[in-house]
Design a protein that fits this description.
Blueprint (H helix, E strand, L loop, with lengths): L2 H4 L9 H10 L4 H11 L12 H12 L1
């Protein structure tokens, strides 16, 4: 018997490949949701943001003059 086939099920009988496929089809991962919130202004997500804060500060100061 193929070793890959043996490793396909847990000791409880759960089909590992089926679970992985269902997880992949379930939608966004936790980290993908955090990144999406950071880009769209979620509260407390600034550490995940790709916004250049220095660029924003310069833009603000440029408009204040």
């Amino acid at each position: 018997m193929n070793h890959e086939k043996e490793a396909q099920f847990t000791s409880a009988g759960t089909n590992i490949n089926e679970v992985k496929q269902k997880n992949a089809d379930a939608g966004l991962s936790y980290n993908e949701v955090k990144a999406l919130l950071a880009r769209s202004g979620g509260h407390g997500t600034s550490i995940y943001s790709d916004t250049n804060t220095e660029e924003v500060k310069q833009d603000i100061h440029k408009h204040q003059q």
